[in-house]
Write a structure and sequence with these properties.
The protein is α+β, with helices and mostly antiparallel strands and about 130 residues long. The protein has three helices and eight strands, in the order E-E-H-E-E-H-H-E-E-E-E. It starts with a strand and ends with a strand.
Length: about 130
């Protein structure tokens, strides 16, 4: 198992981790298999989406999630970050990707991201498991 540790800088932030994950795939020497990406944090998430067009989609996604779970709403969870937990739950804390010919299989404009919903944080931990197909 591998581990990535990221520092986040904003309340809501989308940090691309595609290149770091591809480096781990190369290091593993797995040519055909699966890549499992997981964060233990309940106020963060793992997602994949467009990594082109100057990142405009991330502003749209962030604004859409804020409409669904606004920070300024009154919640039963009274730690002040219920909105972050809801956003993390909606996106999910893990994703699985195929590995083919030593490369993560992604769409033409697709990247893999850590979504931060309760930042800034000093250490967001991402666990990575790479398995070889039989």
């Amino acid at each position: 198992m591998f581990e990535l540790n990221l520092k986040t800088h904003k309340k809501t932030e989308f940090i691309e981790i595609t290149d770091s994950l591809q480096e781990l795939v190369q290091k593993s020497m797995v040519k055909e298999g699966h890549l499992f990406v997981y964060t233990q944090h309940t106020t963060a998430a793992i997602l994949s989406n467009e990594n082109a067009n100057g990142g405009a989609i991330w502003k749209d996604i962030g604004e859409a999630l804020e409409k669904i779970a606004p920070q300024e709403k009154e919640y039963h969870h009274d730690d002040g970050n219920a909105h972050s937990h809801i956003k993390g739950a909606l996106i999910g804390n893990s994703k699985t990707f195929f590995i083919h010919q030593g490369q993560i299989v992604l769409g033409t404009w697709e990247g893999i991201y850590l979504a931060e919903f309760d930042g800034p944080r000093q250490n967001r931990r991402i666990l990575v498991k790479i398995t070889e197909s039989q």
